[in-house]
Amino acid sequence: MLRKLLPILLALFGLGAGLGAGIALKPEPDPHAAEDVCAPPATAETAAKAEGEEAPSRDYVKMNNQFVVPVVEGGRVTALVILSISLEVQLATGELVYQREPKLRDGFLQVLFDHANAGGFRGAFTEANNMTVLRHALLEVAQKSLGPIVSDVLIVDIVRQDS
Q1: In whole angstroms, what is the distance from residue 74 CA to residue 68 CA?
Q2: What is the torsion angle, in degrees rounded to the nearest 10, for the CA atoms of residue 146, residue 99, residue 43 and residue 88?
Q3: Global pTM?
Q4: Mapping DSSP to helix (H, G, I), strand (E, B) and coil, where does residue 91 land?
Q5: Which of 2, 23, 44, 83 is a plausible cystine mate for 67, CB 3.0–4.6 Å?
Q6: Is the dihedral of CA 121, 126, 130, 134 positive or negative?
Q7: Cα pseudo-dihedral 54, 87, 157, 78, rounded to 10
Q8: Which neighbouring-strand residues pair with 69?
Q9: What are the extents of the domains in the chain?
Q10: What b/e string do you get for 64-79 counting C-beta neighbours within 10 Å, with b at 16 or more?
Q11: CA-to-CA distance for 126 and 155, rounded, in angstroms?
């Protein structure tokens, strides 16, 4: 009888201990969280208006496909670098970015190939200086193609796969 009752008692004890620990370690409620429970969720625009600031005048446009860049050493491909890039642009100019995407991709690929050939994707390729140089070169190409509507280039994902 004790063999059947012991697992049930242990499970109840564990459940009680977990419940007690949860109650004891519960964080204090935030007094500001309960104020506007029925209010719609705040967006960047509504938050800026509530604080008396201007609404954000920037938008982010993600390039449709990733960029694949081979790293060549000694005449052989030793690694592949895969990047996802987004552009920070003025509001309502995303359609223009997509219209000129083929030209942008061509320019970005040329910059990425030059960066790879200069050794930018070897070693600690995510070092701050390497990434700053790459972002600046990509921004120059974007501004040459799209003009001043582009204010920044964001490298959203970057992965190197060694072979």
Answers
A1: 19
A2: -30
A3: 0.66
A4: coil
A5: 83
A6: positive
A7: -160
A8: 81
A9: 2-50, 58-162
A10: eeebebbbeeeeeeeb
A11: 11
List all residues 6 or more positions away from 107 whose beta carbon is below 8 Å from its beta carbon. 141, 142, 144, 145
Instruction: Please tell me the predicted confidence (pLDDT) of residue 163.
Output: 84
**What six digits make up the tokens of 120?**
């930018």
What the block records as the tokens of 39 is: 């209010």
> What is the amino acid identity at position 82?
I
Between helix 128-146 and helix 101-117 the angle, nearest 10°, is 150
pLDDT tens string, the chain, 163 residues long: the values are 767 777 777 777 777 777 777 777 777 776 665 554 455 555 555 555 555 556 568 999 999 999 999 999 999 999 999 999 999 999 999 999 999 999 999 999 999 999 999 999 998 999 999 999 999 999 999 999 999 999 999 999 999 999 8
H-only helix segments in 53-153:
94-99, 101-117, 128-146
82 is written with which tokens? 């895969």
